[in-house]
Amino acid sequence: MPPPLPNPLFAEAALLPAGWPEGLGRVILDAVDSTNAEAARRSDAEAAPFWVMARRQTAGRGRRGRAWDDPPGNFAASLALRPLDGPARLALRSFIAALALAEALEGLTGLRGAFALKWPNDVLLQGGKLSGILLETGPGGLLVVGIGVNLRHAPPAAPDAAFPPVALHPATGHDIDPEALLDALAPAFAAWEGRLAAEGFAPVREAWLARAAHLGRPVTARLGNGTVLAGRFDGIGDDGTLRLATAQGMRMIPAAEVFFA
Fold this sequence. Notes:
The protein has helices spanning 35-42, 87-90, 93-109, 168-172, 178-199, 202-210; strands at 25-29, 50-54, 60-61, 67-68, 75-81, 115-118, 122-125, 128-129, 131-138, 142-149, 218-222, 228-236, 242-246, 249-253, 257-260. It is 25% helix and 29% strand.
């Protein structure tokens, strides 16, 4: 009987960068339609967890089915994992992803405090949207965490965008290679994932709030049904919901588009 073929997800194991988390797959592609779609196609119980990064994404997706523009030089990667959690707890990975990304960017640029977090998971730079994070689920408990970052190019602003897009290099002069960002992001995400498993959401929540944009200030929240609520951003709950202090009292909002007043 011929020997089994090696798993391509781990074929580069001998070439993994220093600090890469043990047992985590790493796939680098020249081009793909969507890293989230590719991660889902490659996933199986034995392979997860693993990252898929593409230097060019031709059909990237954002939240609510929006297209995500991804010209060469920007970052597009997805993490496939199978957490043993219920649906509500799965959503907490959006906070982990935003935290890990902010830490990775700070480490690579040295720009401490330059990156702010907007509920639930956007990373802001100089008041503009630097990144997008999309969580999708699949069969067998699969969770795919997709992350896109405007490293070199910012797309045109959408008419209904809460914030104008911004790109790292034009805004700061720092030119980061996408693969270098992946190699900083993966261990940062793994570290926060480990803390979530060991300590619960409390330390994630505390660290996220320390970077939260517009905390304690007026915001408006546009709900999925079109309702718009105005109030003070009063933090997040133990389950990641937005705490909005309105004239009618405190509202706990699980999903909304947030705009700064």
